[in-house]
């Protein structure tokens, strides 16, 4: 393994999901639903397969139907107008979109600022691009139960140097569940314009925001549309994480750049599934509302169970993850905790420390996924109560 990748080892998701299987534990680690997405969308994929649509290489930028559906979704929801022919690119999940964007836009030695804790592929992809990652830490605010991990805007501002090329933003944020507010996003946008930075924004949880929280794409702020690559994914919104259909929307120059990298990573992927996702994006608003409400109810079940089991719970404003603090249980090392949890309680979780450069900052935090059936969440909570 080369020096760029040597520090990364095996992704925590593979490690913890394997542990769930080998111990027969309930897997609240890796974020994937235990119920597949809509029947009619599965049928759409079967129809595409059967009718011979997408069984051979689809077009490099993605099939026109899906690019049009992505553009229509951005316009309908956010008033963002993108040309499906020049400003939309279909990718092999958000994962490839992140990789291709960083490989295309980062020069060796460029600094990339990311919100810490950060989704694990960010660090690896920045490294593969030869960039230097510069984390800005979201810190818990004890007085603020809701979305308690917040960005310090002064710190973000102070982190930008002459070598900063790109801001890598994620909202709603994995693993903390923070949804950046309009004020925070406006400040990020102002900074990006002032310092002439590119922005890659991972918005794969755009449909998973709860209560009063609102997802506002960074690309909607003044001066941002032309400097922002926005990333979306069907895996999260439609509960088909195995299909690996994602996309970016950006200005023609940025899409061309990202496509230059993407064409040599996978070239294309997921032919028949692209047709199905085009139909999914056109589902009526009631689908998205019901999905959000369903996940909100599951959040309540797990949050309550974790609190009763003695965890300090940071109730997330978005995503399907709950970050907890294990110190009230008399524990301080989340990694050690997640290693013994399957044996002691029959539950698998993710130690947030793996998403930090400043490991000590993340040590006491552990993430649980609630994209599971309520009965499964209840059973997990019962098992966790036995820890006390
Ligand atoms: N994004 C999901 C998570 O955060 C799964 C990621 C993965 O398996 N690579 O848990």
UniProtKB/TrEMBL annotation:
Cofactor: pyridoxal 5'-phosphate
Protein name (record): Pyridoxal phosphate-dependent aminotransferase
Protein's organism: Streptomyces thermoalcalitolerans
Origin superkingdom: Bacteria
Domain Aminotransferase class I/classII large: from-to ranges: 26-384
Record key words, sorted: Aminotransferase, Pyridoxal phosphate, Transferase
Pfam families (UniProt xref): Aminotran_1_2
GO molecular function per UniProt: transaminase activity
Coiled coil spans: none
InterPro entries in alphabetical order: Aminotransferase_I/II_large, Kynurenine-oxoglutarate_AT, PyrdxlP-dep_Trfase, PyrdxlP-dep_Trfase_major, PyrdxlP-dep_Trfase_small
């Amino acid at each position: 393994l080369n020096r760029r990748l040597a520090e990364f080892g095996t992704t925590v998701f593979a490690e913890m999901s394997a542990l769930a299987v080998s111990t027969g534990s309930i897997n609240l680690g890796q974020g994937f639903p235990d119920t597949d997405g809509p029947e009619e969308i599965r049928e759409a994929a079967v129809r595409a397969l059967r009718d011979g649509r997408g069984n051979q290489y689809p077009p490099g930028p993605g099939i026109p139907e899906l690019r049009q559906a992505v553009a229509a979704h951005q316009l309908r929801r956010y008033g963002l107008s993108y040309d499906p022919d020049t400003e939309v690119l279909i990718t092999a999940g958000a994962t490839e979109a992140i990789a291709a964007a960083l490989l295309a836009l980062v020069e060796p030695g460029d600094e990339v600022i990311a919100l810490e804790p950060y989704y694990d592929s960010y660090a690896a992809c920045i490294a593969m691009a030869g960039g230097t990652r510069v984390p800005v830490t979201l810190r818990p605010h004890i007085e603020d139960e809701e979305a308690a991990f917040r960005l310090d805007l002064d710190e973000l501002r102070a982190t930008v140097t002459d070598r900063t090329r790109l801001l890598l933003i994620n909202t709603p944020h994995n693993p903390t569940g923070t949804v950046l507010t309009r004020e925070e996003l406006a400040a990020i946008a102002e900074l990006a314009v002032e310092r002439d930075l590119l922005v890659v924004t991972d918005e794969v949880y755009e449909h998973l925001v709860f209560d009063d929280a609102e997802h506002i794409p960074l690309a909607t702020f003044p001066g941002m549309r032309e400097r922002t690559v926005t990333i979306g994914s069907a895996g999260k919104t439609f509960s088909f994480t195995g299909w690996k259909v994602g996309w970016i929307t950006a200005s023609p120059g940025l899409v061309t750049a990202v496509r230059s990298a993407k064409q040599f990573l996978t070239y294309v992927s997921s032919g028949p599934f692209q047709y199905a996702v085009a139909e999914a994006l056109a589902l009526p608003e009631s689908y998205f509302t019901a999905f959000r409400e369903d996940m909100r109810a599951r959040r309540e079940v797990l949050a309550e169970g974790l609190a009763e089991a003695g965890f300090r719970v940071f109730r997330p404003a978005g995503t399907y993850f709950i970050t907890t603090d294990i110190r009230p249980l008399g524990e301080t090392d989340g990694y050690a905790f997640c290693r013994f949890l399957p044996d002691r309680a029959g539950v698998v979780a993710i130690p947030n420390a793996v998403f930090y450069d400043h490991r000590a900052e993340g040590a006491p935090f552990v993430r649980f996924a609630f994209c599971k059936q309520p009965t499964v969440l209840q059973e997990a909570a019962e098992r966790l109560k036995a820890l006390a």
